[in-house]
Amino acid sequence: ATPTSIMVGTGKGAESGILFKGGEHLERTHQLDVIVLDKTGTITRGKPEVTDFTADEETLRLLASAEKGSEHPLAEAIVAYAAEQDLKLAEAEAFQAVPGHGIEAVISGKRVLVGNRKLLAEHGIPTDDAESELTMYEIDGKTAMLIAVDDVFQGIVAVADTIKDTAPEAVRQLQEQGLRVVMLTGDNERTANAIAGQVGIDQVIAQVLPNEKADKVKEIQLEGKKVAMVGDGVNDAPALAVADIGIAIGTGTEVAIEAADVTILGGELLLIPKAIRLSHSTIKNIR
Ligand code: ADP
Ligand code: MG
């Protein structure tokens, strides 16, 4: 690769919204075998909305007051939903995020838990009665969270996030380029499979804890594959750093952008197959 052709290549990339941190990343992009995509904010828009809520108004007040302390997109959706109903939220007396599981808070002297099955199970709260309803939401691609107040199960809040319009086409192009496309998410398996189905991805790694995402990338690398990781969140940063090429979503967090080798502006997924074409043509021109 001559320095000039690489400079021309990265310049072309920048014009279309593909920002390579250095020419060596452009050179390496054509060698990729596997593309790992985060779900929320990468494949989906990352603007979830509450679609279903099965408890009473007081539970909603406690739930939203608890979620006010969280920066998670799921939390924002719940707080916005409560705001629509003009509920007056309380200040949390205590708050703790449990990564990959949910949150625990004390609101108005009550202990509020919001999160997945595992979170409630760890507190010994049975959720068997909710199972069929949970499943119903999940096969619809929704993220359903369980709510408990003072260790008693109260109901479910379900949130939906729509896929980006161009996601199916981007996945199709990547597959046509001979890449294996994988979805990696902390969300549960059924929700993840539903979203994967909508975009044409057949390999899903779900229920991955935030600190395990990088390990999943390493496992694929150990198969002898060159792996690109695409993500937007703070959670994705270690995986972006470990990947052969880390691709950050331009609309995502600063931490992800810093950890990555490439940033795609506006989070436009079609720029990923385009970056691969650009890498191929750059390499060809030099040989
Ligand atoms: P993602 O890959 O979707 O960002 P996370 O690892 O952040 O997943 O979260 C995994 C799961 O933990 C969520 O699907 C949800 O069930 C639960 N969870 C995480 N944060 C919250 C929160 N603030 N409130 C309720 N549940 C949460
Ligand atoms: Mg994300």
From TrEMBL:
Record's subcellular location: Cell membrane; Endomembrane system
Signal peptide range: none
Family: Belongs to the cation transport ATPase (P-type) (TC 3.A.3) family. Type IB subfamily.
Protein known as: Copper-exporting P-type ATPase
Organism: Virgibacillus xinjiangensis
Full protein: residues contained: 458 to 744 of 794
